[in-house]
Amino acid sequence: MSTPKTITKASSSAKAKKLTSSLVELKNVSKSYGEEWASDNVLKNISVEFPAGELTVIVGPSGCGKSTLVNLLAGFEKPDEGRALIDGKEITGPAKDRMVVFQETALIPWQTTLQNVTFGPKMRGDKKGPSLVREAEDLLIKVGLGEFMNKYPIQLSGGMQRRAELARALINEPTVMIMDEPFRGLDAMSRSLMQEFFLELFDENQKTNIFVTSEIDEAIFLADNLVILSNKPTTVQTVIKIDLPRPRNYKMLTTAKAFKYRRQAMELLHGEALKSFAVLK
Asked: Which residues fall within 8 angstroms of residue 248, CB to CB, at 6 or more apart?
């Protein structure tokens, strides 16, 4: 895997565009699946804010419904009760103001890296021609893939594929980025490089970011706000404000403050995991 380069200012139209952020809210949201007499109550009365321009990380016990939460925020599904809002307006479906980077790569295998990045705007018809190509090239240079524009996904490492997907999301100029465990499956070194690179990207554009992970250290390293979910039926246990300075580095995880955050999060998650095991007995 090539090492992500330090982010530099793009040299063309991409640098002139001011990227904005949005406030995302869930208000008393509940979601179940299945028939009424045998329903699986996944989310129960969840209320939480994802502040504009901040990086909010969601953690919770395995199987608690984190992906369901992503689907509601992205507009792929609708709540049974309550409201999902972006800037005070109802989320009624997917839109380019919210881009999702998934756990598994979603790059189109028969398209080059450049073609993958330009595909969405071309299909919608809101960007086209040489200006779209230049913007895509600028983004790929920014994410360290300038030499891999004409490569196919199978020719890219896992970390490179994640960076290509970040570029593919960013070209749509979303106000919200939703990251559903995007670094899962990467080896430890690739994952740590991607975390550092992702933070550089966040510090540059200050978009609203909603990041789902199962890794506590990753959550604390990335987050402005850490949302801890309960076991099913899932509610918000607490929201921890992570008061670590930016830009961040891994040395911060060895500080007393970071250790305090980690212990608080682990105690809550351990308690919820025990409830899950008790149900299985």
From this structure: 199, 221
